[in-house]
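Aim 2, interim progress. The first record below pairs a target sequence with its structure tokens.
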Amino acid sequence: MIIQNFTTKIEEASAIVGKTWPLYAFVTSNPLSGIEGVSFEDATQQANKFMGCSALPKAYLFRQAWDSDKIDKSIVQDLLNKADFCQKPEFYLAEMEAAKTFTTENANHQLDRIVAKWLGVFLDEGMAEWEMPGRSKGFYRAWRELAKYDQEIENTSTGQLPATAAEMLTILMSEFNEQEQVDVFKQHIAALPGWTGYIKYRLAENSAWQQKYPINLEEYLAVRLWLAKQLYGKVVSRNPASELRSKFTEVQHIWLRAWEKTFQIELGSRLQSNLVDAGVQSRNEPDSLVQMVFCIDTRSELIRRHIEKKNKYETFGYAGFFGIATDYTEVSTGLVRKSCPPIVASAYTISETAQTGKEKEFSDFLQKTNFSKFSTFLSSRMKNMLPSAFGYVEGAGLLYGFKMFGRTLFPAEYHQISGSYKVAHEQICETEINPNDSAPNQVAGISIKEKVAIVKSAFDLLGWHKFAPLVVFAGHASHSANNPFGSSLDCGACAASPGRHNARMLAKLANLPEVNIALRKDFNINIPDNTFFIGAEHNTTTDEIILFDAEAPVSHLKAIKALKSDLAAVQQAAISERLELKSHGVKNAIKKASNWAETRPEWGLAKNAGFIIAPRSITKHIDLESRCFLHSYDWKLDAEGKFLESIMQGPMVVTQWINNHYYFSTVDNDRFGGGSKITHNVTGKFGVVQGNGGDLKRGLPLQSVNRADEEMFHQPLRLSVFIEAPLKRVSEILERNSQLKSLLDNNWIYLMIIDPMENNQMSIYQNNGSWSLR
């Protein structure tokens, strides 16, 4: 028998699923990213066919948008007429509501359950006390040796099974032609998109777990297809649950487009109106006392508005990794985590050491952390190991009773006492940066040329030409209790890590005298002698902003004290608006963050729909309801369009990932999202399943996008990008970047240009490089 090579066919078939990111680095991404090369319409059709899901908004979502005037009647009527639908919009909405989608029970349920069981025990990352034997041999060989012990599989012995996955697939695929083989692989990969997506993640990251316990999609398919043959007598079993039929698909697309167009026209009009007086206002504004740079994250919009109202403070938006393509070494564990977008290769690693004169405090911090880790480890072992479990639980019951009582009735106070709100260790540490490819004996640090390049890049993209006495780079993070999806609330630009490390590092580099000298000499960028840069962190759950000011000079302490006082007032105002509370807003926010029963510690980036690349003057004084990503950009300082091209290649693509993650988690939360938090169970330390098994959840929980089971909070709209720049410049960028152009041509993103060279006329990208006036 000639063993076939199925690598190319499996790679083609696996494009139907995107990566499933682990809980500890939960990156929001487009679940259909592998097929972004086809149109949005075709991609959603493939998702319907192979995954048995609904990739377009359901009728109840359209109804709620319609009733709340989020869909303009004239717009939807016009689009219906152009598509030869002659009835009124209300008719088609009622028809969608009345339509029934007939499905039957998943015919492959038993197969899915058995495969998920084997994947769960093999992929475990330290949660199980007793691990699966033979994992180091790889998934197929380990399964082959143990399959005979699985009582759900009849008449199985190791001698009956081919020695390799390739041999198994060669036998099972012999009855199919080339295209049929791809279709079979696609059907079975799409059957468990969460698990197969995690296999794709492991392969791409080549983590320590993958190196020690290897698995690939060929092995997965060999096991699954053999099990299908055993259970059903054939490897292909058409799943009736995937046959979601609806004659209203075209109508759904029309209603979705009308909803998006309504948002675009309303926001575009507000931006153009604000442009009328923006130039005059900016010229008359006094010099700023403080400049604060926040992540482009939609949650920054609220806090920025309140900061600007408080004093002569100027705010800016910049991707939250602050232009430093880096990993971060956790000071207390030594674990290395990515701290820049997944689409960017990490060139550096940021680590921390004790500040001069604070070596004792740093040592004490590490000792306390190590003791806490050991206590947690010991408690876990004692509870889970069979010989000690009953005695330990019996003896420690009273202690756990007090802990449960405190966490349930007094969550904020409990967490404060237990150390969840401890003083940030950043006040006793300083950051260091090293290249990832540094040799063991290489001198620590990076070259002055690289330091200058990082700082200059930030200044260029921000459009900076003058500096306040105090400049703050504020990364952001979240805080919540008992939340497996907690990292999804951290910085999306930092691969679901907090942005504080990058912010502190950029501030440190910008303060270096040698960097200032080089910027002045080589690029005519003059940073005043009295300007000091400082790192900070914005807690998006409580809206507290912590300044890492331990190394600030005496000359700036008064300004920092005044800023802290203002930020405390800003926190109260922002929380009151966000939680719609007249009093006790901060207390309630802290309580929500600390309550282990709270399913919505915050809304994250829910409601995101727009990305505005422009000076702050265009959006200042407008309440954008935390729906827009905001990236600072001044077209006048970017004659060649290089800065704008960087923003479009990086942050625009990342925000599209975030937007689609929220979109798909909303339209079908069961297949694309995380399901209800109420029945979540963590598996293997890296993922969540619903109940006691099944597919690995790969999106946001229901409570992150909906107010109730069928009451939306997030509006599932594709991303609308607004850029203030000459139209010709943007067109040239698109011609140089086929990937960006493809996203637009295939309707994954909308692009609107406000052209300052044409009296701020707004043009909308159509297809294949064409534009139309709004």
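The second target in this work package is listed in the same format:
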Amino acid sequence: MRNLILICLLSLQCWGYALDPIKGAVMNGSIVETIEQEPFLTSFIQGGQLYLNIPDSLLDKPMLFTCHDNMRRSAMQVVWSKLHDKILLKQQAVASTAGIIIPFKEGIDLKDNILAIFPMERELALPGGHCINITDLILNQELEWPQGLGVSFGNPVPRLSVLMGTKDLDGEVIIKARRGMIRRNSKASVPLYFGFCALGSPMKARRFDYRMGFYPDGKMGVRFGQQNGLANITRWRLEKKFKDQNISVPVKPISFLISPEVPKKWRSYIKAGIEEWVPAFESAGFKDALVVKELDSLDEWTAHSIHSNVVHWNQKKYMRGWEYEDYGGTLGHIIDLRSGEILRGDIFMGASVRTVMEAYFVRAAPLDNRAQRFPFPDELIGELFQAITAHEAGHVFGIMDANFGEYRYPWDKMGDSTWLRTMGYTPSVMNYTRPSNIPQPSDSVPPSLLLRHVGPTDRYNIKWAYTEFPEGTTPQQEKAALERMVRWQDSVPWYRFNRNQMEVIGPTASNEVVETNDPVRSTGLALKNIERVIDLLPDVTNDQNDNGRLNRLYEKTLELWYNHMVHVSTLIGGYDIHYKAMSQPGNMYTSIPWKDQMEALDFLLTHAFAPPDWLVEPDFHTKNRYSTFPDLVLHYQQKLIIDLLRARRIKRMEHLEEVSGNKGLVKAYLRYLQDGLFKEIWESFGHVDRRKQEIQRAYIDTIIAMLGQERSIMEIENQFFVHSDYSKGLLLIQLMDLKTEIEKGMRRNRNVDTLGHWRLCLEKINTALLVTPTNSIQDD
């Protein structure tokens, strides 16, 4: 063996590699340091049993225990400990560098928990270590993986479980198994990959700040809202190779492998989607921070290593029942909870070709000739996959789904190609804005500018999270520099982040449409394109042998129409949001001007509750429909009615009354809404069409239901969903006023064809008033 080593060394010298016995090998002029690897776990299968050798040096040292299935990733920090003649596997609570202990399960304050106890297999042990049989742990034992990380095995089925193989890598052991379990009330043998991975020293962390849109290191104990939990953000360990350079290559770039299962014709677009982030990392001081490789083959051990980040092509889309999944993609993370370091990040491309084509058609077909015929050209489909990939890559780098800088872009720039080339139509690819449908055909906006791309806010976020400060920077100086970056949001409003929690507080927090600083104007433009989409539907479905595509596209167009109406409705009782430190001047929540709120209500009364025939009864309905059921437009209108009267919206208006000193806003709003919905009462008690009758009765039903809601004074959280007594009183007055007006109208107009409708409305109101102690209340 010694002679073989000498021959190898001489061969290296012959090929031009100089050797230094102290520093290591000099390869083509660059030093490659030789690092003595610390021994790690080793594994083997013998007699159908899985054995693990644990060196003494690894006892009581933290490592990761991981599990992968086809999409989900989960991990827990564990240690191996020796107790008498047994080896214990213990799950640990994690000591975070943020200064807090992250429990292994919420509500349990133990520092560790025994997962399994193993007798030693002394005859199989290697020198300086201990051997154990872990077959039952891998195949049969119920393991409760950390909350929020995604894998739960349920009831094991041992007779369907089998070991498939094991592989020892540097600092890592990977085990492949088919594990029997119960899924959807059926017994299944599911492929799983388990791993044990070495943990080095924790990286330098960056503290979580609620004003920035990064995931915290763990979900347990970290609350979103106007407070910072003791947590680190999740990010990659990026360190400059050349510390003295403003922009340096990293010591280790973030590398992605595009799986061979991704069709070749889409790989270059997926690669481009990830590489859209390269300039963002340059803003943080890193050149060539990302490496993306397209692969024709990938062995399963590399694919499931902790050191591999893989772009997957979701195979479910080839199975009946899942072939047309609507979601675009998702991700899988493995995190070192000590520091928030992202150890592995995978992208799962979920959307089918049909899904991306149809979603683009209903938004952009009037603006992109390529989308006016199915199937789309491959170039366009590839660009759609690129946009999805860029969004999912942002998650892999640690950025949340949220609202970034929305309600801040000028509405009149959405058709300006010069603006769009520089700024995009949305400041962040992480927004749920979808393709733009605001430009008009006369604007001649290039189709490439109708898709989301990595934008200015994404570059800002990466700069804040990944900038490496020079050596010698004190913690106080670093904290001050990061705070200055956060406060750039004061002067650059599209840098602002907010996370929609439980309610859509304002136009900064809605999704699915392009959001501008004037939702009414931009929605008016979008409606023109929606009408053009309806006009295109017969031509793009004419070659079909059934009406499946026509119905899908029409339904998706209606959903888009509804999302635009919701966006306008966010102005009513809405706020502009700017998260701030207490020392920053100004309010976190600035109410939308009352004039703009009422303009939005006028828009809804005109466009949502009196929609045009081209939307509700397009010409093609006479050919392919036999009933008014289902009436999706009516369904969306009823949802809007409920939403416009929700307790959360009314309570925001109550607050506006108090802080502005302008009493009567809630009453004025409710009166204006009711008058608009029942305008026929004041128009000679005129004809009310079928859909409007349903809307009016839905309004009455909604108020009656809200008046009947009970609340517990001991459960303050539940009061979020229930109107205050103040608002209930105003709602009751509206109902009583409506009763009076209907009775007057019926006395004046005894022969109108909708008399039965008004009688039904009156009976509903009378029934409600009989069970409500209001007979003594008089209208002032």
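Residues 1-35, 773-780 have pLDDT under 50 and may be disordered. This observation will shape the mutagenesis plan for the next reporting period.
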